[in-house]
Every structure is written in structure tokens, then in C-alpha cells.
Amino acid sequence: MITASSSSPSPSIRQPVSLLGAGGAATALGVALVAAGIEVSAVWSRRLEHAQALATRLPGALACSHPQSAADRGALVVLAVPDSAIVPLCAQLRWRSGQAVIHLAGAYGRELLAPAAQAGAETGAFHPLQTFAGRADPAAWHGVAVAIEADPPLATELASLARRLGAEPFSLDPVQRPLYHAAAALAANGLTALAGVAADLLHRATGLEREAAVRHLLPLLRGVLVNLEQLGLPQALTGPVARADRATLERHVAALARETPEWLALYRALAEAMLPLARERAANDRERLAALDALADWLASAESGEGVSR
Predict the structure, then answer these.
(1) Domain boundaries, the chain
(2) Bigger pLDDT: 34 or 132?
(3) What's the pTM value of the predicted model, to 2 decimals?
(4) For every residue of the chain, which 3-state class applies, written as one string?
(5) CATH number of this structure's domain 2-172, picked from the four choices 3.40.50.720, 3.90.1150.10, 3.10.580.10, 3.75.10.10
(6) Could you tell me which residue ranges the Putative oxidoreductase/dehydrogenase Rossmann-like domain spans (predicted)?
């Protein structure tokens, strides 16, 4: 179960902060911390030049050549490294009582930080529901949901930290972290993959190169996000499935089967995923609901290969 973190009281935030990692997430967090008036004392990366590049953007931060040096300089230590590197990095470091260590992974909880907990440090997970991809704008944190897992008082402290960044903290049942992260990956990475598929289809249909195809698709993608924000679900769903327009869908399926059969299964799966939203939107329209039922039957038969022209 997901619950919003309590907004009171607002505790002091443990400082200074040390960043172990200098990639996109570490950079986005470090710049936002400094903008929020939180001291960052040290940065470490496997490549010293990366740590140095980030440290130059964080006044007072020292680029360290060894992770222990960076960890020792922090009251709050952030392991902003790939998920697979968290356990070995945590295990190789010496931790102290009163120190706090967190990671930024979404699919895993603080069990990855067991060596630090055994040494007396407080541990937690702090995962922003956002993709940064090299962005280092503190405003990128505004309104972002942050999943927090920790024991009090660290959980309350991390919630306060999220709010200082302009984010919205919430607590998450550790058992549900994989499902939560699947939702995040589907929304972020899945949308990127769909844009790639759409750009490929547009290229085949028009001859546009990928960069131009993506540029042509961006206003459409932005419009979808605006509709989601302003109208919500299911009203943001538009298009032939929402209209139960089987004739158009038949043309789509025939074209895909002929030109790009590798994307046909994806198209059908997405059309089927739209059906519950379309039914919800048409809840008071019996004629539309009947048409959607017929459309669902047709999609099922199309998946089995019946009635599909090739």
C-alpha cells in the first residue's frame, strides 16, 4: 500500500551529504540539494574525472578518488550507483553509528544496505518517480513523487528532504516495490520505446529520418500528456479504439501485417489494453459498449490469425 508521508513535524535534514556516484541521478540530486541550501561535501565516482566534473557544480564539494573518503565526509551518504553496484559498494565501506545511508533504486528496498545497518548506520531508499537523463535543473524535482522506505526518524527526515526539493514524498510497502517500479519503467521506458516504434513506422510511411520523425511526433506526445493532466483517465483516451472504429483498426492491422509484421503483436496488445479505458469512457453508451465488445472479439480473432488480411 502507498501512503503519503506525514507533512509534520518538519525535522532538520542531516548534513553534509556525500554522493557516491556521478551519473545522471547523482548530478540531478546534487544540483537540487545545493539549490535547496543543503550542503554537499563530497563526490566519488569510479572515474575521478566524472567526480571532479560534478564537484565543480557543487560549491564546497570535494571530488574523492576513493569511496571511503567520500563516505567518511557525509552524515547522509547517497549511493547513486547502478542497482547491481549497490550491494558490493555498501559492503566494502566502513559505516558508523549515527550515519545515514540511502540508495536511489526503485525496484529494491533497503535490504541492499544490510552491511551498513549491521554496522549501526540508519538505512533507507529514496526513489524519485522521474527520469533525469542528464538533466540537472532543480525544477525537474518539483511535483515529483518520491518513494521512501526507512525507519523513523530517518523516514521523516527523508520526507522533509524531498519537500525541500519541491517533491512529494510517499511511503511504499517494500513487498510492492517491484510492481511499483514496473509501473515507473512502463511509463518512462515504455513511452520511449513506443516513440521509437512510432518513429520507425513514420519513417517507413514518409521517408523521414528518425530525428525528423521524432520531431513530428513530439507535439502529439505533448498533447497526450496535456490531456492526461487536464482530463485524466479515461477521458484522455482518443482514437479508433475509443470510438470502436473497427474499420480503421482493420486498415492499421493490414498495413502492419504487410509492412512491419514485427510490430503487429505490440499494436494488438496496446489496442487490447485500451479497451478497459474505452469501456469506462463509454459507460453510459450501450451502443458504444456493444461495439467495443465486438471489437474485443475481433482483436482476439485477429490475434489467433483469423480474419486478418496479409
Answers:
(1) 2-172, 180-303
(2) 34
(3) 0.88
(4) CEEECCCCCCCCCCCCEEEECCCHHHHHHHHHHHHCCCCEEEEECCCHHHHHHHHCCCCCCEEECCHHHHHHCCCEEEECCCHHHHHHHHHHCCCCCCCEEEECCCCCCHHHHHHHHHCCCEEEEEEECCCCCCCCCHHHHCCCEEEEEECCCHHHHHHHHHHHCCCEEEEECHHHHHHHHHHHHHHHHHHHHHHHHHHHHHHHHHCCCHHHHHHHHHHHHHHHHHHHHHHCCCCCCCCHHHHCCHHHHHHHHHHHHHHCHHHHHHHHHHHHHHHHHHHHHCCCCHHHHHHHHHHHHHHHHHHCCCCCCC
(5) 3.40.50.720
(6) 13-128
